Amino acid sequence: xxxxxxxxxxxxxxxxxxxxxxxxxxxxxxxxxxxxxxxxxxxxxxxxxxxxxxxxxxxxxxxxxxxxxxxxxxxxxxxxxxxxxxxxxxxxxxxxxxxxxxxxxxxxxxxxxxxxxxxxxxxxxxxxxxxxxxxxxxxxxxxxxxxxxxxxxxxxxxxxxxxxxxxxxxxxxxxxxxxxxxxxxxxxxxxxxxxxxxxxxxxxxxxxxxxxxxxxxxxxxxxxxxxxxxxxxxxxxxxxxxxxxxxxxx
Length: 250
Ligand SMILES: [Zn+2]
Hints:
The chain is of the alpha+beta class. It is built from four helices and 13 strands. It has a single domain (38-239), classed as Muramoyl-pentapeptide Carboxypeptidase, domain 2 (2-Layer Sandwich), CATH 3.30.1380.
């Protein structure tokens, strides 16, 4: 393990974020052009191949092989399953990896613990790579998130959240190289602004191109007023729009 080997821990309140002005944006390709759907990640340009510090561990599964081929830095991770309360469900990672927070040219900052690796199922790692490329093409340099793997149930019930399997991430915002940070809490409702447009276009693209199976926005319910919940619930294709809707997977 190298520099970013601290793991786990609860997320802390958002760190202070700096403000500045925005930069010109390059033409932004669709997700499918920026790295393809997850199954096409292996055909994408190698991002870190040959780098001396590309501490890639080639894993056993095809997903990890694709990650390695894409130059993503990660470590195979096999934590012991843990019980989800008294539900009988065991939280676990089917194909676990510790993901270096630099993904596809974007820094994934775990608020309150910014240098920590992301604890994820490999399928989520591939989705984050595709999402990172989409964001990087629009000038985003970092994403602020508040966690991936977390052994917990969906709020208000005992069904396991996709977080319990390392197949979900909560995104609070993102930053450009210059300019004020984009924050879901404030900017989702400002659709006419650059920041608001970015958030709405991101949610639409992640849904349309099936990078994630579930995209929950502040429109889903009050519990999501300050973040986008993105997950890989099997057999679902859902984006919350407008009035409240009911769904599994959060
Ligand atoms: Zn979530």
